[in-house]
Amino acid sequence: MSAQAETPFPPGALEREAETADTRRRWLLSLPAIAIIVCAAAGPLLVMVIYSFLTPGDYGNVKWEFSLEGWMNTIVQRDIFDDTLIWADAHLSIFWRSFSLSLITTILTLIIGVPTAWFVATQPPGRREFWLFLVTVPFWTNLLVRTIAIQELIRSEGVINLVLLKIGIIDEPLQMMFTDFAIGFGMTYVYLPLMVLPVYAAVDKLDFRLVEAAHDLYASRWTAFRRVILPLIKPGIIAGSILVFVPCLGAYVTPRVLGGGKNLMFGNLIELQFGAGRNWPLGAALSLMLMAAVMVALIFYVRITSREKADG
Amino acid sequence: MTSQTAHAEPAEAAIADTTAIAVDVDRVSKIFRGETEVRALDDVSVGIRKNEFFTLLGPSGCGKTTLLRLIAGFEPPTMGAIRLGTRDISRLPPNQRPINTVFQNYALFPHMSVAQNIAFGLEMLGKPKAEVQRTVDEMLRLVRMEELKNRRTSEISGGQQQRVALARALAPHPEVLLLDEPLSALDLKLRKDMQIELKRLQHETGITFIFVTHDQEEALTMSDRVAVMSAGKILQVGRPRDIYERPAERFVANFIGESNFLDATLSGGTVELAAGGRFDVRVPEGVRDGAVSVLVRPEHASVRSGEAAEGETGATVENVVYSGEATVVHLRLATGEAMKIRLANAPQGGEAPPQTGGAAAIRIAPGAVTVLKD
Amino acid sequence: MAETTTPTPTETAAPALTAPRREPRGYSVRSLPGFAVIAIFTFFALYAPILILVTYSFNAGTSLAIWEGFSLRWYYQAAANEAVQDAAIRSLYLAFCAATIATVAATMAALATTRTRRFPGKTMIYALINQPLMIPEIVTAVALLIVFAAIKVWTGHTSMIYLIAAHTAFCVPFAYLPIRARLETMDNTLETAAQDLYASRWLTFRRVTLPLMWPGIVAGLMLAFVISLDDVVITEFVKSAGQETIPTYMLGQLRRVVTPEVNAISTVILMAGVILVALFFRLTSRRR
C-alpha cells in the first residue's frame, strides 16, 4: 500500500495515547486503596519478615541483632539433637491439633453442609432467597457472639448439661469446655456457612436435565448422586472445604474462648509469643509459617476455581 | 494532511465535488490487538454527504459498527483521519463531537424519566432551562411521545424506547446522527413502521443519518446511498438501485438479493454466455476481455415450457417451488450450470409454469446481464 | 428451569415396572432422601444457640443456667456501665470512620479495576485489594502490632489513628465486593451514551455512573461497617491502653465471672447485625 502520509498522526499513536491515559487514570483511582492496604496490611507483613530474623528483647519487642533463633525455634522441633526438645513437643502438638481439628471441622461441615446446600438450592425460587438468607445471617453476625453462644451451650451449667442431667443420662455435668471437642464443635458451628455457600452456588448451577438423563438411563437416586451429581458439584465442594479449612487453621477467637489456656491452636501459639512468651522473632516466624500454609491452600483453591471457570 | 479526499471510486469523487461532504472517512484502519490481531477496518475511505441517509450494510463482523464507533469517537482509529466537513476530529473526545448516536440497545438512562433522558444532552451543552424545556417538548411531539414524558424508561414498550432514544439523540440537533442497528430489536410490523418514521424524521430535521444494518431490505428501502462492507473493507458505494442491479462483485450480488452466476466470455462490449446468448453490457473498470462471471437476477429472466427458439436458452426443469406471490423455477442449463428464475404468479387458470423434468426455454431480458469484477 | 410442583419425595414402594421407572407424580430428581432432614437439623443447630443466648439475656436472675423470669435488668446494667458506653461509642466511631474511608477508596478502586481490558498492573492491584481477605487475621494483627508498636514508641502518639488505619485496610476488600458486583452488572453503553450526549468525564460519573452504582456503594458501606464492628483479633492487638471496643471488652469479660450482661450486649450486636444484613440483602438482590 502507499504511504499513510495523510494521516494526522503516526499509526497507532491515538490508541497508545488513549491507553496510556486510561492506565494512568486507573492507577490514580486505585491509589487510595493501595496506599491504605500497603500501610496497614501488606507492608507490615514485610516488616514482620525482618523481625523474624532479629533477637528477642528482654521485655518483649526485639533487639536489632541478626539471629536465626526465631526460625530455629519453630523448625527445631524435628531436630532431636537440640536441647530445646521440650518446647518442640509443645509446638508439635499444637501444629497437630491445628491441623487435625481443621480437618475434622472441614469433614463435619461437609457432612452437614452439602445436604443443606442441596436443600436450599432445590427450593422453589421464591423460598430459596429466604433459606439463603438464613444461611447468610450467621455468616455476617459477630464471630465472637456466635462463639459465646456455643459457650453458653456447652458450659458445665450450660443448656446441654442441664437437659442431660434432667433426663438422667448423666449424674454430673460433662466437662466439654476447654477441650479439643469444644474447639472443633465451635469451629464447625462458626464456619458452616462458608461450606454451604459455595456448595449452594455449585448446585444452583447444576443442569438438572443431566440428573434426569441419569435416571432415564436406569440410575437409582444414589447412583445418580454418586456418578453424576457429585462429580459436577465437586468444584464447589472443594472450594467450600478450603474456605473452611483455611480460617480454621488460623483461628484465634474460637480456640481462645472455648479451648482455654491449655488447648492452644496455631493462632494462640503466635499470640503467646507476643504476650507471656516475649519472643517476637519466634512469633513472627510462626506467623509467616501459618501464612505460607494458608497461601498453599489458597493457591490450590484459585487453581481449582479457575479451572472450573474454564470448564463452564 | 494534504489532499482532502482519496476516494476509491472515480464516480464518487465526481459527485463529491458538487455536494458538500458531512463526514469524511479518509483511509481509516482499525486493528484490535488481543490474543490475535483483528483488522476490523482495513484502509477504508468514504465520504458521506450532508443531509444524506447513508447506510453501512454488511454481515456481522464486517466492521460496520466499528466504523460507527470511530466516527462517534468512542474509539480512536489506528490509522487514517476522520473529518467533519474539513475539520479533523480524530482527537476530539465523543462529548465534543456534534455527532449523536442511537444505540442498538437504546442505552436509555434507567434512573431518569423519558423527558429527563431527552433533556440530558441539552443540559450537558449548558442550554438555558427554557430552551431545554422547549426543545424537549418539540422532540416529544416529533416522535409522538407527549403523553409518556414522565414515565420511567423501564415502563414503556420497546418501540417507545426506540423513539425516546431517537428523540434524545436528535434533541441537541447534531450535525450527524449515527444509528447502530436501531431496529433490530423490534418485531417485523413495528420495524416497517419505524423505517417510514425514520425516513420522515430525517427529512424533517435535515440531519445527516448514518445507519448501520445487516438487513439488506432495510438498507435498500431507506437509504439515499448504501455502502456494502465485508471483512473490514467497503466493497461498493452507491444508490440502492445501482447496488442491486449493478453489483461490482460477487459478494455484493450474493449479499443483496438472489443471484445467478453464469460463465461467459467478454469481448468488446459484448458477452457471450457459455450456455448460449449474446448481450451488450457495461464493462466495469479493470475487467479485460476473456472469461468472466456474469450476474442475472432471478426476476430478470423468464421461462416457458418447450424447446428453445432463437434468442432463448434451453434448460431442464429440476424443481418448481411455489412461494405465494412468485414461483421459483430451478433449472439446469446445458453447460451443467444451475439457474433459478422467479416468475410472478398470475391468477389461477393463467399460464401454468413449467413442469419438473420437462424441457424449458429461458429468455433473459436485455440489460439484465451484469459483468462482475471477480 | 425450576419446577413449581412441590418436591415431595415419593419413596414409597414403587411398583416394579420393567422399563425406566418414571414415577407418576411428585417425582423429582431434586430430592435426595435424608438431605432435607439434615438441612432442617442444620438450620435448627445454626439458630438454637443464638436463641438460647438471646433468651438468657432476658433472665432476671444472676445465673446463666436457671431461668428466674423475664427482665431487662442486664440491658439496664450494660447500658449504665461506663466501660460499655465508652466501648460502644468507640466501636461506632471506629466503624464509621473506617467504613467511610474504606468505601470511598473501594469505590474508586472498583471503578478502576472493573469493565476494562487488561491494563499493566491490573492483577497486582486486584491482588493487593483482596490481600487482607487471604491472610489469617492473627497474622495481620501481629504484623500490625510490630509496626505500630515501633511507630508508637518513635512518635509517642497513641490516638485512634492506628485502629482506624487497620480497620480501614481490612474493610476495603469487603466494601469493594458489592460495588464491583454492581458495576459488573451495569450496562457500559449508558456511560458511552452520556459521553455521546456531551457529558464530560466528571459529569458522566456524577449524572450516570454514580446514581446507577449507588446501591452497590451503600451495600459496601454497610458491609464494611458490620465487618469493622465485629472485629476482635486485629483490634485486640492494635489498640493502645484504654481503647476497648465492644468486642474486645466482651473478650476481656469472658476471662472473669460471666454475667448475663455479656448476653445482653451480644443480643444487641446480633440484632444490629441482622438488621444490617437484611438491608444489605435487599439492596443487592433488587435489580433495577
UniProtKB/TrEMBL annotation, chain A:
<feature type="transmembrane region" description="Helical">
    <location>
        <begin position="33"/>
        <end position="54"/>
    </location>
</feature>
<keyword id="KW-1003">Cell membrane</keyword>
<dbReference type="GO" id="GO:0055085">
    <property type="term" value="P:transmembrane transport"/>
</dbReference>
<protein>
    <submittedName>
        <fullName>ABC transporter permease</fullName>
    </submittedName>
</protein>
<feature type="transmembrane region" description="Helical">
    <location>
        <begin position="130"/>
        <end position="149"/>
    </location>
</feature>
<dbReference type="GO" id="GO:0005886">
    <property type="term" value="C:plasma membrane"/>
</dbReference>
<feature type="domain" description="ABC transmembrane type-1">
    <location>
        <begin position="95"/>
        <end position="301"/>
    </location>
</feature>
<keyword id="KW-0813">Transport</keyword>
<dbReference type="InterPro" id="IPR000515">
    <property type="entry name" value="MetI-like"/>
</dbReference>
<keyword id="KW-0812">Transmembrane</keyword>
<feature type="transmembrane region" description="Helical">
    <location>
        <begin position="228"/>
        <end position="253"/>
    </location>
</feature>
<dbReference type="Pfam" id="PF00528">
    <property type="entry name" value="BPD_transp_1"/>
</dbReference>
<keyword id="KW-0472">Membrane</keyword>
<comment type="similarity">
    <text>Belongs to the binding-protein-dependent transport system permease family. CysTW subfamily.</text>
</comment>
<dbReference type="InterPro" id="IPR035906">
    <property type="entry name" value="MetI-like_sf"/>
</dbReference>
UniProtKB/TrEMBL annotation, chain B:
<dbReference type="Pfam" id="PF00005">
    <property type="entry name" value="ABC_tran"/>
</dbReference>
<comment type="function">
    <text>Part of the ABC transporter complex PotABCD involved in spermidine/putrescine import. Responsible for energy coupling to the transport system.</text>
</comment>
<dbReference type="InterPro" id="IPR017879">
    <property type="entry name" value="PotA_ATP-bd"/>
</dbReference>
<keyword id="KW-0813">Transport</keyword>
<dbReference type="GO" id="GO:0015594">
    <property type="term" value="F:ABC-type putrescine transporter activity"/>
</dbReference>
<dbReference type="InterPro" id="IPR013611">
    <property type="entry name" value="Transp-assoc_OB_typ2"/>
</dbReference>
<dbReference type="GO" id="GO:0016887">
    <property type="term" value="F:ATP hydrolysis activity"/>
</dbReference>
<dbReference type="InterPro" id="IPR050093">
    <property type="entry name" value="ABC_SmlMolc_Importer"/>
</dbReference>
<keyword id="KW-1003">Cell membrane</keyword>
<dbReference type="GO" id="GO:0043190">
    <property type="term" value="C:ATP-binding cassette (ABC) transporter complex"/>
</dbReference>
<keyword id="KW-0547">Nucleotide-binding</keyword>
<dbReference type="GO" id="GO:0005524">
    <property type="term" value="F:ATP binding"/>
</dbReference>
<comment type="subunit">
    <text>The complex is composed of two ATP-binding proteins (PotA), two transmembrane proteins (PotB and PotC) and a solute-binding protein (PotD).</text>
</comment>
<dbReference type="InterPro" id="IPR027417">
    <property type="entry name" value="P-loop_NTPase"/>
</dbReference>
<keyword id="KW-1278">Translocase</keyword>
Automatic annotation (TrEMBL), chain C:
<keyword id="KW-0472">Membrane</keyword>
<comment type="similarity">
    <text>Belongs to the binding-protein-dependent transport system permease family. CysTW subfamily.</text>
</comment>
<keyword id="KW-1133">Transmembrane helix</keyword>
<keyword id="KW-1003">Cell membrane</keyword>
<feature type="transmembrane region" description="Helical">
    <location>
        <begin position="264"/>
        <end position="283"/>
    </location>
</feature>
<comment type="function">
    <text>Required for the activity of the bacterial periplasmic transport system of putrescine and spermidine.</text>
</comment>
<feature type="transmembrane region" description="Helical">
    <location>
        <begin position="92"/>
        <end position="112"/>
    </location>
</feature>
<keyword id="KW-0812">Transmembrane</keyword>
<feature type="transmembrane region" description="Helical">
    <location>
        <begin position="208"/>
        <end position="229"/>
    </location>
</feature>
<dbReference type="GO" id="GO:0055085">
    <property type="term" value="P:transmembrane transport"/>
</dbReference>
<dbReference type="Pfam" id="PF00528">
    <property type="entry name" value="BPD_transp_1"/>
</dbReference>
<dbReference type="InterPro" id="IPR000515">
    <property type="entry name" value="MetI-like"/>
</dbReference>
<feature type="transmembrane region" description="Helical">
    <location>
        <begin position="133"/>
        <end position="154"/>
    </location>
</feature>
<dbReference type="GO" id="GO:0005886">
    <property type="term" value="C:plasma membrane"/>
</dbReference>
<feature type="transmembrane region" description="Helical">
    <location>
        <begin position="32"/>
        <end position="58"/>
    </location>
</feature>
